[in-house]
Amino acid sequence: MSEIEEDPWAAALAEQAESSDSATDEEDPWAAALNEQAESEGSAATTAAQTMSSTYLDRKDKVDLDVVMDVPVTLALEIGRASVTIRNLLSYTQGSVIELERLAGEPLDVLVNGTLIAHGEVVVVNDKFGVRLTDVVSPIERIKKLR
C-alpha cells in the first residue's frame, strides 16, 4: 500500500501542492509561501500518520496508556431499536410490549461512547445480568467507521 492510500490527508495536500505548482510562484509570493507550507505539512502529516499507525494500530512498540486509563467512557448495550409515533409512545402503559427491529436470539451491540466495539449475548451470573462478548470489532474496523 502506498503512503497516499494510507493517509488521505497527505494525498489531499499533495494534490493541492501539485495543482498549486502549475501557477507561477514568481508572480505571487503568497502562493510560493503557501506551497512551501503545504509541502512541509504534507511530509509532517505523512510522518505523523506512519508513527500513529505503527504505534497504535500495529502495536509493534509498547504504548504507555496510563495517561488515559482513568478517563470515563459510556458503555451501552443495545438489544434493539424501534421507531414509533408520538401517538403510540404516549399510549404506552405499564405492561405494554414494544416490538424491536432485532430478532430474538440475535446478539446485542456493545457500544462505547456510541461506537460499536463488540457483539455479545446476555448471561445471568449469581442473579445478575452480564454480557458475554461473542465478537469484538477490530481496532482497524472501528477507525474505518469513524471516517
Describe the structure in your own words.
- The protein is of the alpha+beta class.
- It has two domains: 3-57; 75-146, Surface presentation of antigens (SPOA).
- It contains five helices and four strands, in the order αααβαβββα.
- The chain has helices spanning 3-6, 8-21, 29-57, 86-91, 139-146, and strands at 75-78, 108-112, 115-125, 128-136.
- The protein is elongated.
CATH topology of the largest domain: Surface presentation of antigens (SPOA)
Low-confidence blocks of residues: 1-5
Helix content: 40-55%
Number of strands: 4
Question: Which tags fit this structure?
Answer:
5 helices, 147 residues, four-stranded antiparallel β-sheet, 20% strand
Topology:
Blueprint: H1 3-6, H2 8-21, H3 29-57, E1 75-78, H4 86-91, E2 108-112, E3 115-125, E4 128-136, H5 139-146
Antiparallel strand pairs: 1-2, 2-3, 3-4
Quick summary:
This protein is an alpha+beta fold and 147 residues long. The protein has helices spanning 3-6, 8-21, 29-57, 86-91, 139-146; strands at 75-78, 108-112, 115-125, 128-136. The protein has two domains: 3-57; 75-146, SpoA-like (Surface presentation of antigens (SPOA)).
